[in-house]
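Let us begin with a simple case.
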Amino acid sequence: MTRSRSRKTPATPATPAVTAADRPDLSFTAFHQMNRASYVRYAETYLRHRQDAEEAIDSTFEHLLRTWDQVLLTENPAAYAWTVMRNKVIDHARARTRRPPLFDEAAFDTVALRGAVDPIGQITESLALFRALRQLTDRQQDVMVMIYLQGMNAPEVAAVLGMTSATVRSTVRHSLRRLREILGPDRTMEGQR
């Protein structure tokens, strides 16, 4: 004999139902969690203020969330997201009437300067190096900033930029070669990590 269970469930307060459309895709959530910190670090390197960096990265992830389905259809979603982030950082700098490149102010805030015997000579050398960095491609600049200014290793950079570790190492090698051409063999970033 089967008894029917017709117990009434307690009434719950009227709350709007959360649908799948209201929640971010789990892949987006994972992507956000994996990349937010490195994106903010990169943006802060350029914008020089944590709050500005946070705002630029929030804008980046809002854009990515709105277009996440299309992002996933791209050949390399991580590389696409990086390009969106880089452009948002530049836009944010322009909106704040700051120059987007980090290279002018960064010459005055280097590890080499902190331990320099000749601070003026070190500033002059740093300015020359940062001017030379501006002559690299965007990808080369990004890799060099992440490796040498942020202290990331090749696999970390590869994960953020959506490329292989071998491509990161190759980019560093080509960037250093280009910097040697611009500055001369004795004045590159080699050994400055």
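The second case is a distinct protein. As before, the sequence precedes its structure tokens.
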Amino acid sequence: MGAIENHTALMYGYRLGGPADGWAGLASDLTWYSADGESWLMPRVSWATEAMREENHSDYFAGAAEERLAAFGLGGLLLRTYSIGPDDEGHILAATVREADWKPLPLDLAAMSAVSRYDEPLARALSALELRPHAMKPEWMMASYYA
């Protein structure tokens, strides 16, 4: 297994959030799970796995969501885990990720405005994942994420 690296990138999609921030990006219904004296929030979805219900680790959500996206033919979309705080993480459903590669990130206005072609697949992904974001449409955002 390789090392986990922290990257900073410009992403186009939806910030979903995670257990640490109460899934701040979602307007979806949430449900409480608890085990071993700990409680956590997860989106209320029909595809929730045992792992999501038994342990407070957002990677279980991410893994199950990626499998569901692939099953719906949306495997080209990305679910990135990003840093909320020192030990907390959340998720971004992204159509495109532009990494800075340790140098200033050039902004190509033509490419940035052409991302509207991703709006429909992102909407289908939200439907497949049974999620409703607070944001009315996808947006560009900077985030630190792990790979």
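Residues 58-71 form the longest helix (14 residues). The chain is about 25% helix and 35% strand.
Keep these points in mind for the review questions at the end of the chapter.
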